[in-house]
Amino acid sequence: GNHDVYVVPEPNSSFSATQANAIRDFVAAGGGLFVVADHAGADRNNDGIDPVEAWNGLFGSIQDVFGIRFQANTITDSPNSNILDDPSSPILHGAFGDVIGTTYYAGATINIDPTKNPTVQALIWKTGTPQGSNTNVTFATAEYGLGRVAAIGDSSPADDGTGPGNLQDGWNDP
User: Fold this and answer.
1) Residue 79 and residue 174 in contact, taking contact as beta carbons nearer than 8 Å
2) Smallest Cα–Cα separation from 136: which of 144, 149, 127?
């Protein structure tokens, strides 16, 4: 294909079966998928589907092969430094430095299910959640086929603070 990574921030409509299969096949063939959800009720186009429902509908339609499900909740957890203690993680300790914290300004948590996908891994949890827990995850990864998936339950960390509305400057948040 012509692309290495498919980034989908806050989908506000359901994925069709054709789209769901294409996404699954893209990842299986070696593509990367960056999943960005937001809090429950973040239905920006008022069609009755928020990002949590859109992503969970996609995961359900492809038999949840990634082992990732969003919870229909809203949390704020900033700053958060409840990060997996794994010095060998190339995601947490990569070319751009070490992850030392995240921000969550009204986002949804993730539940992971290693019985659906044994590679699914929580990397960051809500403050106060024991590391190793499969619930209250705020950032998770998984592999599927030859590809990889990264999922976060809040769009605020990706905001640059310059758009209209109530955005957070996640790029420069300490």
Assistant:
1) yes
2) 127
Q: How far apart are CA 152 and CA 108, in angstroms?
A: 8
**Do you find a cis peptide bond into 9, omega within 30 degrees of 0?**
no
Alpha carbons 129 and 84: distance in angstroms, whole number: 11
Lowest mean pLDDT across 13-22, 60-69, 113-122: 60-69
Indicate the average pLDDT of the chain: 90
Q: What is the DSSP string of 44-101?
A: TT-SS--HHHHHHHHHHHTTTTT-EEE-S--EE--SB--B---TT-TTTEETTEE---
Residues 6 or more apart in contact with residue 78 via CB below 8 angstroms: 102, 103, 104, 105, 173
Query: Residue for token digits 């949840």?
Result: 64
- Given a contact cutoff of 8 angstroms between Cβ atoms, the answer to whether 69 and 56 are in contact is yes
Contact 82, 38 (CB under 8 A): no
Instruction: Retrieve residue 114's tokens.
Output: 């290693």
Express each pLDDT in 34-80 by its tens digit: 999 999 989 989 999 999 999 999 888 887 899 999 999 999 998 88
